[in-house]
Design a protein that fits this description.
Blueprint (H helix, E strand, L loop, with lengths): L2 E8 L2 E4 L5 E2 L3 H9 L7 H6 L7 E5 L5 E6 L32
Antiparallel strand pairs: 1-2, 1-3, 1-4, 4-5
């Protein structure tokens, strides 16, 4: 499956560059994923944080060619959110093992 990149932009420029991307079946699947927040944000996040309404996804293909934009104001509610083939960036664990613990 091709990889798509979901960069986040504001009116003043780039906010977050998507280095990892997500695998989607095709352009239509990438558009659907973007409309559901692309595992980066959600419709509910935008309601809770009005600053996000000025942001948009700039979706690019595997060669980083721009395809389309999706304003965060157009995000759909999460009930029917599609699944991506690969998870977005892994979250770090709150409890990291320490190699300096006394034995």
């Amino acid at each position: 499956m091709p990889t798509y990149f979901f960069d986040v932009q504001s009116h003043s420029g780039l906010v977050c560059l998507d280095y990892q991307g997500l695998d989607c079946r095709d352009d239509d699947a990438a558009l659907t994923l973007a409309r559901h927040g692309a595992r980066f944000t959600s419709h509910g996040d935008c309601i809770r944080n009005p600053q996000l309404t000025s942001y948009q996804f700039a979706v690019a293909d595997a060669e980083h060619r721009p395809l389309f934009t999706v304003p965060f104001t157009d995000l759909l509610p999460d009930e029917d959110a599609p699944l991506a083939s690969r998870k977005r960036r892994p979250r770090s664990s709150k409890h990291r093992p320490s190699s300096n613990r006394p034995g």
